[in-house]
Write a structure and sequence with these properties.
The structure holds two protein chains of two kinds. Helices cover about 70% and strands about 5% of the residues of chain A. Chain A is mainly alpha-helical. Chain A has a domain of about 210 residues: MetI-like fold (Orthogonal Bundle), CATH 1.10.3720.10. Chain A has a two-stranded antiparallel ribbon with strand order 1-2. In chain A, helix 2 runs antiparallel to helix 15, helix 3 crosses helix 15 and helix 4 packs parallel to helix 9. The radius of gyration of chain A is 27 Å and the shape is globular. Chain B has two domains: about 60 residues; about 230 residues, MetI-like (MetI-like fold), CATH 1.10.3720. Chain B is globular and about 75 Å long. The chains are: A mainly alpha, B mainly alpha. At the A-B interface, helix 2, strand 2, helix 5, helix 6 and helix 7 of A face helix 1, helix 4, helix 5, helix 6 and helix 7 of B.
Chain lengths: ~325, ~300
């Protein structure tokens, strides 16, 4: 479609302009980028859209001899309405949010505390660091079964054994039972139940933190060690208290590291399936286990997909805020 | 003022040092007690694991539970399943790591250096894709694998798991490696190009060596993530051709009998490779993660 007027140079066709853009310099770029984009589309975007599609139908899957067929009629938003009017769903949502928020809270406070503790040099630091890091390397399933043994409700469970031995408890406690806390103080017990706190989820958080706190602490420690010592000296000369120094120097400067930690951990916490499934089966409903149960235990692939899609959208909303914050930090 | 602070510091020096020692001791006890209990349990007999009071010192410990993982190799024996689980885990984690590093750093390089429009949005999309929980994708993975892609016979294969693992840490690899490439001055590359190196040569010879710390960190992180995966084998690879160590440990938990001693022994063996990685390379993982993500 060349321009007929001779006075002007002919405008290259759309195709040619496209080829010019991808040839030479850019050809390499496109070539290098394609595999990652293919993976992103094929394994993330398309399955996510497929989840949406299945969630809008009463999908059923039948597998005969290794080959399956998918059936189901379009039902619109019915699966979502089913979920949103199901009290179980709200319990699961509450439990998921509780697990996530409490874990992040513990990690930010105790993680910074651990890092501050390790920040001052002392003899044998390398050994302590090596030892403290080990739990993070333990595979989640192994960690879950280990804490299953520790929190075992019989008197031979490790924690019960120790507490009985020291006469701190009179009878073995079933730690992994989702029973209310502080049963003797009704108002407190009710308040805690209302936000989704129970014995089992707190026990699981403890087991989960045993594995994940080390990484948080070491990332924060790395951030702490990047802060120039002159800042603290200057603050000390100005007469700033330890708290002011922490609040005005330490916290702002470890901000970027903290956001790394938050991203890594949110990623894992929304994914939290393994430790809960290994220890509780379907006994402690969080969203991920609910979706799994609907699809693979009840065969309700439509409702399962709807729940899975809700989790995905939640994760993407959180991801959006994180990523935006990261970029803002990067620009500064 | 200055006098006072030094005096106060001296007065407080002793107590804070003691508090620090106490806190460090507590930290070590908190870390080591569960580990000790795991190893201890792995040396017990089944009866020993359900006795009250538990013995907290290794008396009459035996390596029988470990021997179980290697002896009497026959179809569907514990050692047979352990062997395949270990083999599958090693293959899947290694291949995933290599794929991730090649694909991820190539993309990260483009996103750092090119002027392709929308590259920031693309980086964000990759990072966001990593925040997506596995469970929200597992249902379509299953359905597509058994139905529409059934002809490819991917169900219950390690290949399928590798493809899926690769997507799970790709975003993190791209994000961290892009930080690395951004921090390498473009002049270095231009100097190499002036000397006649092509873009590929300058990337492989000049840029990649400088990004090695990032590659080590993200590679190890990918390896550990894929080593740890449980839900994918649970749904997509329940047979010996694909199941991995976490799934093996999970299936050791009998339905009626919890053979804690065997589970503990399997757990110790499954934890050994990642623990060794952390002991030797833990420092690199931390420094790689922070250097790539924090612009100093």
């Amino acid at each position: 479609m060349a321009n007929p007027e001779l006075s002007q140079p002919p405008r290259p066709s759309l195709m040619r302009r496209y080829f010019r853009r991808v040839s030479g310099e850019n050809a390499w770029f496109v070539l290098l980028l394609i595999p990652a984009v293919v993976i992103l589309l094929g394994v993330i975007v398309i399955p996510m859209l497929w989840t949406l599609k299945m969630s809008l139908a009463n999908t059923s899957v039948s597998v005969v001899g290794g080959r399956g067929s998918v059936g189901g009629q379009f039902v619109g938003w019915r699966n979502y309405i089913f979920l949103l009017t199901d009290p179980q769903f709200w319990v699961a949502l509450r439990e998921t949010l509780y697990f996530w928020i409490v874990s992040i809270g513990i990690e930010v406070t105790l993680g910074i505390g651990m890092a501050l503790l390790l920040n001052r040099p002392f003899r044998g630091f390398w050994l302590v660091r090596a030892v403290i890091f080990i739990p993070w390397a333990i595979p989640t399933v192994v960690n879950a079964t280990l804490w299953g043994m520790i929190f075992n409700g019989n008197n031979y469970g490790a924690l019960n054994d120790l507490l009985l031995r020291w006469h701190w408890i009179a009878a073995p406690v079933v730690w992994l039972n989702p029973s209310p806390l502080f049963a003797r103080i009704p108002w407190l017990s009710h308040a805690l139940s209302a936000i989704g706190s129970n014995l089992a989820i707190n026990a699981i958080i403890v087991g989960d933190e045993w594995k994940t706190l080390p990484l948080v602490a070491f990332l924060v420690l790395a951030g702490l060690q990047m802060i120039p010592q002159d800042f603290y000296e200057a603050a000390r000369i100005e007469g700033a208290s330890a708290w002011t120094q922490f609040n005005k120097i330490t916290l702002p400067l470890i901000g970027p590291v903290l956001s790394v930690v938050l991203i890594l951990r949110t990623m894992q916490l929304l994914r939290a399936f393994t430790i809960l499934f290994t220890l509780e089966g379907y006994g402690l409903p969080v969203l991920s286990i609910g979706a799994y149960q609907q699809a693979f235990s009840f065969g309700n692939f439509g409702i399962g997909s709807a729940e899975a899609f809700i989790i995905g959208v939640m994760a993407l909303v959180i991801a959006y805020f994180y990523v935006r914050k990261l970029y803002r930090e990067e620009m500064q | 003022m200055n006098m006072m602070t030094t005096r106060r510091a001296r007065r407080h020096a002793q107590p804070t040092a003691i508090v620090r020692v106490i806190l460090l001791t507590l930290l070590l006890v908190w870390t080591l007690t569960p580990l000790y209990f795991l190893v201890l349990t792995s040396l017990k007999s089944y009866v020993g694991t359900i006795a009250y009071p538990q013995s907290w010192v290794p008396t009459g410990g035996s390596l029988a539970n470990y021997a179980l993982m290697f002896q009497n190799f026959s179809a569907d024996s514990v050692s047979y399943r352990f062997f395949y689980a270990m083999r599958n885990s090693l293959i899947a984690s290694t291949v995933t790591t290599i794929l991730n590093l090649v694909v991820g750093s190539a993309a990260a390089y483009v996103l750092a250096r090119s002027r392709i429009r929308g590259k920031n949005i693309l980086t964000m999309a990759f990072l966001a894709s990593n925040l997506l929980p596995t469970v929200s994708l597992i249902i379509p993975f299953y359905v597509l694998t058994v139905s529409y892609l059934g002809g490819l016979h991917l169900y219950d294969t390690n290949t399928l798991l590798i493809i899926l693992y690769t997507s799970f840490s790709l975003g993190l690899v791209i994000w961290i490696m892009r930080g690395y490439f951004d921090s390498i001055p473009i002049e270095l590359e231009e100097a190499a190009r002036v000397d006649g190196a092509s873009r590929m040569i300058s990337l492989l010879r000049v840029i990649m060596p400088l990004a090695v710390p990032g590659l080590i960190a993200t590679g190890l992180l990918t390896f550990l993530t894929s080593w740890d995966n449980f839900i994918l084998p649970l749904v997509l690879g329940p047979d010996q051709s694909a199941y991995n160590l976490p799934f093996f440990i999970y299936s050791l938990n009998g339905q009626y009998l919890h053979l804690n001693n065997e589970v503990a022994a399997g757990g110790v063996l499954a934890a050994l490779p990642p623990v060794l990685i952390i002991l030797f390379f833990g420092k690199y993982i931390v420094s790689g993660l922070t250097a790539g993500s924090v612009k100093g």
